Amino acid sequence: MKKNNEGILLIDKEASSTSFHLVSILRRFTQIQKIGHAGTLDPFATGVMVMLVGPTYTKLSETFLNHDKQYKATIHLGITTDTYDIDGQVTQKSPHIPAQRDIEAILPAFQGEILQTPPMFSAKKVQGKKLYELARQGITIERKPSPVKISIQLLSYEYPFLKLLIDCSKGTYIRSLAFDLGENLGTGAHLAALTRTRSGPFLLDKCVPQTELTPTLIEQSLFQYEA
Q: Which of 42, 82, 85, 180 is catalytic?
C-alpha cells in the first residue's frame, strides 16, 4: 500500500481485541503512522470500528466521534459487577426474577433525553484524572450526570438475559444503562455482550472482519468520505 493512501476503513472488531491493537495492526500493514478511530469499543465488545487512515482523516476524528451509534446489547440480570460489564468483579447477586411486564414498565423512563452518570471504570476525565485510574486504586468519586439521547427496543427476554437494540447519542455508556436498568428492576445487572451495529452512516454489514485483515484487503476496502 502506498504511504499516501488515505481514507476510512470499516472493521468488525472481534471480542478480546482492543482499539489500540487495531491501530497497531493497520500501522504494520499500511506503513502509515497517522491512524486513529471514531470511537473506541471495550475489549469484550464487537462490531463497527471506523478507522481513520492518514492525517487528512485523523484530523476529522471529532466530526466522526459526534455521530450517533446503534448497539445490540445483552444484559445479564441478577449479577452486578464493579465495571458494570462481564470483565468486572462480582459485587452483588440477587435471586429476584423480574417478569417481562416489569421490564416493559421501566423502559419508558430510559427513552428520549435523559441524564446518565458515567461508570467509574471509564476514560472520562474528572479534574484531569481518568475515572478508571481512580477506580483501579479503589477510589470512587461523585460523577456529574450528562445528558444523552436514547431509543430502546426490546428484542427478547429469557431470564437472566435481556437483549436490547439501542440507538443513542455520543457519550452514552451502555454499561451504565445496564447497571441502571438492574437497579430499577431491583435485581442488579451487568452488560454481558455488546455489538456496535452502526456508527453514524456506517453499518456493520459493510465492515471487514478483523480476522480477515491483510494488506491487500485493506487497500481494496479503504475509501474516501466527505463528512
A: 42
* CA atoms within 13 Å, Cβ hemisphere of 12: 11
Known catalytic membership, residue 82 = no
Residue pair 35/23 in contact by the 8 Å Cβ criterion = yes
Rounded to the nearest angstrom, the gap between the alpha carbon of residue 173 and the centroid of all alpha carbons in its chain is 7
Residue bearing cell 471487514: 208
- pLDDT digit string (tens) for 41-98? 999 999 999 999 999 999 988 888 889 999 999 999 999 999 999 999 999 999 999 9
* Ramachandran quadrant class, 47 (left: phi over 0; alpha: psi -120 to 50; beta: rest): left
pLDDT tens digit string along 84-134? 999 999 999 999 999 999 999 999 999 999 999 887 676 777 767 776 676
Q: Domains in the chain, ordered, with CATH?
A: 7-66+200-221 (3.30.2350.10), 69-199 (3.30.2350.10)
Query: Taking the complete model, does pTM exceed 0.85, yes or no?
Result: yes
